[in-house]
């Protein structure tokens, strides 16, 4: 298994032109919306569930990232088949959660947890690892603040999720907005949870400005998640 992982990652790094862009977003609104959705659906939702839903929405708006690049062809897919990194003793694998865009956040939670449990129990096969159009790798639970995720070939991009950290910001709405501007306000200080996101992409297929727009959309969805999880 390690030989297979080594071969695939070597091929990815040898062929794809890896570039990584990072953005840190205020995650307090996302956690509030996630708690409300969990209470509504009677499900103990996690940050991973929220990120998968947000990524799917971002892919809908930026379809060039929901794609593969193979034999010189940039192939864009309609379904969001998102690989989700799972840490096994033998190494990291990314079983695929199919058609995330058609699922509610509660359905994402149930399918993700069932898939991860099967993989951890060794009850999976190669079919569970095929057909991915994008991948999410979450190292936040391990306390990682930033990393460079390696693209899962032949996919075009992968999102790394880092550890949630509290940051001191100006209170009363004076924290930095997603557009980089500051609102006028007082001098109070509040501590808010922030989420760093690392997007690695194949520069042969998409450009840095494309990646910046994708991350900007993700930031907007995290910081203003009113419609992200349904009514």
The average pLDDT value, as a whole number, equals 91
Annotation, overall tally of beta strands: 11
Rounded radius of gyration (Å): 18 Å
Largest sheet: 7 strands, mixed
Following the backbone from N to C, one meets helices and strands in this order, namely HEHHEEEEEEHEEEEH
User: Separation of termini?
Assistant: 43 Å
Could you state the CATH homologous superfamily?
Answer: Chloramphenicol acetyltransferase-like domain
Give me the CATH fold name: Chloramphenicol Acetyltransferase
Which structural category fits the helices and strands?
A: alpha+beta
* The level-1 CATH class: Alpha Beta
Beta-strand residue percentage: 25-35%
Short key terms for the protein model shown above:
231 residues, alpha+beta, Chloramphenicol Acetyltransferase, 7-stranded mixed sheet, two-stranded antiparallel sheet, globular
Report on this model:
The strands form three sheets. Strands 1, 4, 7, 8, 9, 10 and 11 form a seven-stranded mixed beta sheet that branches. Strands 2-3 form a two-stranded antiparallel sheet. It has a two-stranded antiparallel ribbon with strand order 5-6. The chain has one domain: Chloramphenicol Acetyltransferase (2-Layer Sandwich), CATH 3.30.559. The chain has helices spanning 2-15, 28-41, 47-61, 105-120, 208-223, and strands at residues 18-26, 67-70, 73-76, 82-84, 86-88, 91-93, 96-97, 134-138, 157-161, 165-170, 189-202. It is of the alpha+beta class.
